[in-house]
Specification:
With 439 residues, this protein is of the alpha+beta class. It is built from 14 helices and 23 strands. The strands form six sheets. Strands 3, 7, 8, 9, 10, 11, 12, 13 and 16 form a nine-stranded mixed sheet that branches. The longest helix has 21 residues. The protein binds adenosine-5'-triphosphate and magnesium ion (MG).
């Protein structure tokens, strides 16, 4: 993209309404604009980041064997009456009437709808297990939308739903999703910790929130430093595979033997057992939540399949959510400095910015155009009629992993300066070496 012809409205001043770094930086770097309270438009570079996160989430769901589908945002009230949640959900649910006075709602989640879709077609235990997911906008009329996209009213979620014949099967699905989550967060460059969460009326230990450490997080957390060291992406002897039940068990045991809890579940006695040098405390942001809830919806909505003995069985279910749009804010909370955002390579809107320090200088223009032609969609070309200082500041603010600085002195001898945003390191290199260096 050429910056001169892009909707990237960067701001010099700090917007007064933003209380935390990610919200400030998302507004200042021109990623989003609020259109109503808690509702945001994603501008071009913000949307690129959102799509990059979505892609990683999707790849890991697919790798775990979940099937992608897309359910609508608008749902009929009748489905929610079947489960009893239409009245229970309260004011967070946005209720709508169409021209025929039919009651609809903007979905805050999709358990009822996916149960209905499965109920219409799955008739036998032979069709189970299945995990379905979609990445779709949700609406929750939060009392206090705040912190930008972190607690919005309209937000993007990946929500998956598992259907198993029995409890043992549901446990395998649950562990598969937990592994997929740990791999997803690691690829996003985040240290997420699975913390035991309230498991509701069903009990058991099958409910975990995934928490990213950040000083501005809403939850107080306690954990064993072991979580900082596990490599969930590793394959081979110590890696974990989703297609092997004993591997999943080993993984789950490793996750649950180390202590990790939010304030609500903090157990002082268990905490004392963690070796003091490994005890960590801090604040965290919830970026995902998985839980097993048995036959709550399948029973309430009359969804049964014929079991091996011919008798009807209500499938055992679980739900698995990731806050895709919240993650954009969480990644920024985990990676920024005074000057702006520091994107992990995997989700940066552009791999590099090309800064033309002297537009109109023949050598600068020629080198920039050639680099831009070569790097294509991976580069944002700052071709504006602006002072060098403005270009440096905006590139730091937007947080591209690499900056290619093209000034008249170096350009005359075919050289440019390459800056790594995360470390601030700079090197002068030959133009021809740039693509390989940033690849
Ligand atoms: P919270 O306690 O933060 O309100 P929740 O328990 O209501 O979250 P879930 O219903 O488990 O959230 O939704 C799954 C994920 O969706 C959460 O882990 C979070 O990352 C994200 N999420 C939930 N509410 C919002 C929101 N208002 N804005 C942005 N993301 C959200
Ligand atoms: Mg909530």
């Amino acid at each position: 993209m050429r910056l001169s012809h892009s909707l990237i409205p960067t701001l010099k001043e700090t917007p007064a309404e933003a209380q935390i770094a990610s919200h400030r930086l998302m507004l200042r770097a021109g990623l989003v604009r609020q259109t109503s309270a808690g509702i945001y438009a994603w501008l071009p570079i913000g949307y690129r980041v959102l799509r990059n996160i979505e892609r990683i989430v999707r790849e890991e769901q697919d790798a775990a064997g979940a099937q992608e589908c897309l359910m609508p945002t608008i749902q009929p009230a009748e489905l929610w009456r079947e489960s009893g949640r239409y009245d229970d959900y309260g004011k967070e649910m946005l209720r709508i009437r169409d021209r025929h006075e039919r009651e609809l709602l903007y979905g805050p989640t999709n358990e009822e709808m996916i149960t209905d879709l499965m109920r219409q077609s799955a008739k036998s235990y032979r069709e189970l297990p299945q995990i379905l997911y979609h990445i779709q906008w949700k609406f929750r009329d939060e009392v206090r939308p705040r912190f930008g996209v972190m607690r919005g009213r309209e937000f993007l979620m990946k929500d998956a739903y598992s259907f198993d014949l029995d409890y043992a099967g549901a446990v395998v699905s649950y562990r598969k999703m937990m592994l997929a989550y740990m791999r997803t967060f690691q690829r996003l460059g985040l240290k997420a910790i699975p913390m035991a969460a309230e498991s509701g009326p069903i009990g058991g230990n099958l409910s975990h929130e995934f928490i990213i450490l950040a000083p501005t997080g809403e939850s107080q957390v306690y954990y064993d430093s072991a979580f900082e060291e596990i490599d969930y992406l590793a394959r081979g002897a110590d890696g974990f595979r989703h297609d092997d039940a004993s591997d999943l068990e080993r993984f789950f045991t490793e996750m649950t033997t180390h202590y990790a809890a939010t304030d609500e579940k903090h157990d002082k006695a268990a905490w004392e057992k963690v070796a003091p040098p490994r005890r960590r405390e801090g604040r965290g942001i919830e970026v995902g939540h998985i839980f097993y809830f048995g036959t709550k919806y399948s029973a309430a909505m009359g969804f049964g399949v014929a079991g091996p003995d011919g008798k009807q069985v209500h499938p055992e279910m679980g739900s698995y959510g990731i806050g895709v749009s919240r993650l954009v804010g969480a990644v920024i909370e985990a990676g920024h400095d005074e000057a702006g955002i520091i994107w992990p390579d995997a989700i940066a809107p552009f791999r590099a910015a090309i800064l033309n320090l002297k537009r109109g200088d023949a050598a600068c223009d020629r080198i920039c155009e050639a680099l831009y032609a070569k790097l294509g969609a991976a580069a944002l070309y700052d071709d504006r009629e602006e002072r060098a200082g403005v270009k440096f500041a905006d590139a730091d603010l937007m947080g591209h992993p690499w900056q290619i600085v093209v000034g008249p002195r170096g350009a005359a001898s075919g050289r440019v300066e390459l800056k790594r945003r995360a470390t601030g390191e700079r090197h002068e290199i030959a133009v021809d070496d740039v693509p390989a260096r940033i690849a």
